[in-house]
Design brief:
Jelly Rolls; Immunoglobulin-like; GH43_arabinanases; 5 helices; Atrophied bacterial Ig domain-containing protein; mainly beta
Length: about 625
């Protein structure tokens, strides 16, 4: 209700009471949240697409309309039907461009909190516990001075201060250092529908946090006022699924209802509102399950070597969790060929290809649905095909400019044995020369002149074999290297353009000179498109250089929590002969699937011809 209109109703009520004293007699007390005080309500089932934008309709019925804007919808989702709806946000670090909802000013330019002294904000939330400081909502002002300029009112399911990891709400008129914060006893439960409600009362100077209709904690607002967090120059009032702080991570999860009242609801009203909000959950759960059902496909879980479900030759990585955390169980009609967990045992040539029905049963909040996929597992290949395939897969990297040892495979993917013969065994060692010391296979001894060497690979499986010849050029020994300077690779910081590789040189290791006028030389076009912690090592031969870098882009964020959990499993690698001209970027996976990140890589020459890679990761 309009703030002025509410005052008029109050006056009329007082007049009625004076004229009719009998109305003072005791009567049943209504505790429901006053609809007149509901100034914003997104039921997440009402939206329109207009001029390429997705508008979230405010169904509060208040005189001011605050239709939200679904930002970055490609990194989120809006699903609804006549009975309910939800919006999901992909979440991620500050640079992830996750989806979120922008709460605008009214068409007349009025902020949502304009003229509001007391406020109640409530949300139906199902979040994924992917880290700290993910804001469910944030109302207020965004400033370039994030330490002292941001002004805001917010709630988070897991606050990071002092690593407390508890649900919290707070308000500040001047940055995080001046924040009034109240904290619960535990974090908001994840993967479960929870109603979180926060009440700020400027008139009573209180701030309270409720979870599922029950008060968790209450404290002083320390004199803060909502009027002091409004930005008159901004086009928005706040956000859902996004922090006021640009370097905070985004919220990851689902929101099924969001409402704002311009009064401090009582405990009884909040309990009733919680009960009312829960009536939407069943309809939302049905939507969640249906969306997971429609999204489930086998293609992403096939081996990289298999293109479709009609030509399966390798194990499937069948998921146990689908979209929105929906649980999945699998059942195969032929577990001897395709097990319930996705293990493939190909039928023999005599048995031929096998058609299989793979049944997926999806479970979510007591609801169940099934989906059947038809899979064809191909018969085992003949020995001739295996040998040919393994032979065709052999390649020798950089064969025209060999400076160091060559990797020569000894076994093919399909079980073939591979042996090697060198036309110059004193220059490149073959299988016979490396007998008893297999690690010396492919070792190179450079000569005073360039030498062409023919390597012959014999690929054998039982009685079938094939041969392949590879011409390689071993460059001459560079001799003694004359060092005249130090060379340094580095990145400059967490900001746009800072996570790129720059170079510097020095004759005195305490006095460095930046190259390329201090501008970066190498930028990443792969992975997270950020490069950190570059490390360069000279090859044992002396005229080859290798550079590694961490695949990580933090941007302006300083919150490394999310990056450690879901960080890249890859390292970026370059090669150079002269530290000026660098090879194309290569992205190489080195960390296991249960490793959260691959950072701080180093190379060490532990003995001649042997280099050890060292890196850190979170398991």
């Amino acid at each position: 209700m309009n703030r002025i209109m509410k005052q008029k109703w109050l006056s009329i009520s007082l007049i009625v009471l004076l004229l009719f004293p009998s109305m003072m007699n005791p009567a049943p007390i209504l505790v429901h949240a006053e609809e007149d005080s509901l100034i914003l309500h997104y039921n997440m089932s009402s939206f329109v697409e207009e001029d390429g934008d997705i508008k979230v309709i405010d169904v509060s019925g208040s005189e001011q309309q605050y239709d939200g804007l679904f930002k970055n919808p490609e990194n989120g989702q809006f699903l609804h039907n006549e009975e309910g709806g939800f919006v999901s946000f992909n979440g991620g670090g500050a640079n992830s461009n996750s989806g979120y909802i922008e709460i605008p000013k009214s068409p007349e330019g009025e902020d949502l909190l304009e003229g509001v002294e007391d406020v109640t904000v409530s949300a139906l939330v199902n979040w994924e516990n992917d880290g700290q400081n993910r804001w469910i909502f944030g109302l207020g002002k965004v400033s370039d001075d994030i330490e002292n300029g941001n002004a805001y009112f917010f709630a988070t399911p897991r606050h990071g201060i002092e690593n407390s990891n508890v649900a919290a709400t707070g308000i500040s008129e001047a940055g995080w250092r001046n924040e009034t914060l109240i904290r619960g006893n535990e974090g908001l439960r994840s993967n479960s529908w929870e109603v979180i409600t926060v009440v700020f009362s400027g008139s009573e100077d209180t701030l309270s946090l409720f979870v599922n209709g029950e008060e968790v904690v209450s404290g002083s607002a320390q004199g803060k006022q909502l009027a002091n967090i409004i930005d008159d120059n901004a086009s928005f009032s706040g956000f859902i699924g996004k922090s006021i702080f640009g370097n905070d991570p985004y919220f990851k999860g689902v929101i099924g209802d969001f409402r704002v009242y311009d009064e401090a609801l009582s405990n009884a009203q909040i309990e009733e509102m919680y009960t009312n909000t829960l009536t939407q959950v069943t309809a939302i759960n049905e939507l969640v399950l249906q969306d997971a059902y429609e999204s489930l496909d086998l293609i992403p879980y096939l081996s990289e070597q298999d293109e479709d479900v009609d030509h399966v030759t390798r194990h499937l990585s069948l998921p146990t969790l689908g979209k929105h955390g929906v649980k999945i169980e699998w059942e195969s009609s032929h577990p001897d060929v395709l097990s319930h967990s996705g293990v493939v045992t190909r039928p023999s040539v005599e048995d031929g290809d096998t058609m299989i029905d793979l049944l997926a049963t999806l479970h979510y909040e007591g609801l169940t649905v099934t989906k059947t996929f038809t899979v064809i597992v191909l018969q085992e290949w003949s020995d001739a095909y295996k040998v040919e395939s393994d032979a065709n897969a052999i390649s020798i990297y950089n064969h025209e400019q060999v400076k160091g040892n060559i990797h020569l495979p000894t076994e093919g993917e399909h079980g073939s044995k591979i042996t090697w013969e060198s036309s110059h065994p004193s220059i490149i060692r073959g299988t016979e020369e490396a007998e008893g010391q297999l690690h010396q296979l492919g070792w190179v001894t450079r000569q005073s002149e360039d030498v062409a060497v023919t390597l012959t690979a014999t690929v054998t499986l039982d009685d079938v074999f094939e041969q392949r010849e590879f011409e390689v050029n071993v460059l001459k020994d560079p001799g003694e290297v004359d060092y005249d300077a130090y060379f340094f690779s580095y990145f400059t910081g967490e900001y746009e353009g800072g996570e790129e590789i720059s170079f510097a040189t020095a004759e005195d290791p305490l006095m460095w000179r930046a190259l390329n006028n201090g501008q970066s030389v190498i930028q990443s076009t792969m992975g997270e498109e950020g490069l950190r912690d570059p490390f360069i090592i000279r090859s044992p031969e002396g005229d080859k250089f290798y550079m590694l870098a961490t695949d990580l882009k933090m941007g302006e964020s300083t919150n490394f929590d999310q990056a450690q959990i879901t960080g890249s499993h890859y390292l970026m690698i370059w090669e150079s002969d002269d530290l000026v001209n660098w090879s194309e970027q290569r992205m190489v996976k080195v960390a296991p699937e249960n490793g959260g990140n691959t950072w701080l890589q180093k190379l060490f020459m532990i003995r001649i011809q042997v280099i050890m890679l060292y890196f850190g990761l979170r398991l």
